[in-house]
Write a structure and sequence with these properties.
One of its GO terms (molecular function) is methyltransferase activity. By secondary structure, the protein is α/β, with parallel strands linked by helices. It has eight helices and seven strands; from the N terminus they run αααβαβαββαβααββ. A seven-stranded mixed sheet has the order 3-2-1-4-5-7-6, with helices on both faces.
């Protein structure tokens, strides 16, 4: 599951018994060597899809972690890119990574539920962060994304089709979520990380309630399932011009 450069079992146990912020501060130096990082194949496919819709002016990576999404934005934004995260450890690693100097990049430590920005971005992206928010927090998060976009700007993120009930992946994710719920019932502070709490149908409705016009784009790089549905989609939520 992890490369030799990834965290040890002991390190993961310490992180899992911490708060989300402290856990990711500890995980940050080895985060890019874990399955928690969004795969390059997904990042590249999203960049390709966004390039067809761009170019964009300014971009924001919401819950940027070590900055993989910032690298996507740097490919499609001309004027500048910002990465925002509440983990100081993640931001420290992100700052250390070498990046092309073509697009200015800046980093901000802040809670995504209370963004310190005015509506000045043309594109907001997020990768793999929604499991760290309880379902009741997502409407507020989407309102925050809406509030920092210029009219006509877009909030984009990939969504993977849920594994079938008969697949090992389904039971692995169910088991993980169950362990996390037991952990949070018995231990404080809580560590919010649930893979099955993000329900695409409900998410699309909440995006619309937040004021977005929403569309889905299949990412052809990942093909389709047996029923013909895409394995991976890009959600593009656009703030209306008026």
């Amino acid at each position: 599951m992890f490369s030799p450069e990834g965290p040890s079992l002991r390190e993961l146990a310490v992180q899992a018994l911490s708060s989300v912020e402290r856990g990711y501060d500890l995980l940050a130096p080895k985060f890019d060597h874990t399955p928690f990082r969004t795969p390059d194949s997904v990042l590249d496919a999203v960049a390709t899809a966004l390039r067809r819709r761009g170019p964009f002016g300014t971009g924001l990576d919401l819950c940027c972690g070590t900055g993989a999404g910032v690298d996507v934005l740097a490919r499609v934004c001309r004027e500048g890119v910002v990465g925002v995260d509440f983990s100081a450890g993640m931001l420290a690693v992100a700052r250390e990574r070498e990046r092309p100097a073509d697009t200015p990049v800046s980093w901000v430590r802040a809670d995504a539920r209370a963004l310190p920005f005015r509506p000045g971005f043309d594109l907001v992206v997020s990768f793999g962060a929604f499991g760290h928010f309880l379902p009741g927090e997502l409407p507020g998060l989407f309102r925050q994304a809406h509030s920092v976009l210029r009219p006509g700007g877009s909030f984009a993120f990939p969504v993977l089709a849920p594994p079938r009930v008969t697949s090992p992946a389904h039971w692995m994710l169910l088991g993980f979520d169950t362990v996390m719920r037991v952990r949070n019932a018995l231990w404080r502070p809580p560590f919010v990380m649930y893979y099955r709490a993000f329900r695409p149908g409900e998410v699309l409705r909440e995006l619309e309630r937040a004021g977005f016009d929403v569309e889905l784009e299949a990412l052809p790089e990942f093909g389709r399932r047996r029923d013909g549905s895409p394995r991976v989609r890009l959600v593009v939520a656009r703030r209306p011009v008026s």
